[in-house]
Amino acid sequence: MGQILTIHTIGNPLLRRKAAKVGDPQDPKLAVLVDNMLTTMLASDGVGIAAPQISQLLRVVIVASRPNPRYPDAPQMEPVIMVNPIILSRSSGQEEGLEGCLSVPGKKCLIMRHQAVEVCWHDLEAKRHQQSFSGFVARIVQHEVDHLEGILYPDRAGSSG
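Predicted structure:
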């Protein structure tokens, strides 16, 4: 397992910056970063994490839904490491759901998100993936991709996805 790193919290200007595209998904330094991200996320009872949350302005997220004290009803899935994720399409249907964030500790609020998204990304072997996600997992994907654009979930409160 990697190191547990400090997660930046709301108010840190780094969280408002756009992340840079990763040039080489196979860079060994990226594998170390991902290992640290996963360890940090698990130690914090997160269901996802984006590289900017731990000081790395790179387009890397981990989506890892699982039941935990913060989200007891979350579905179980293996962590998905997304390098340079792009949301290709969003469902027309939206739903409101309770959202929190490791960078906004101790708070949750209702956020409107698309019910389903189709995403493409690369893994750490530079293999391209394309997959649809729905429900809670689609919410995590949208939330983490927002981090890459410098958007925090409270920015979406009262707006439509």
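Summary: The chain has one domain: 13-156.
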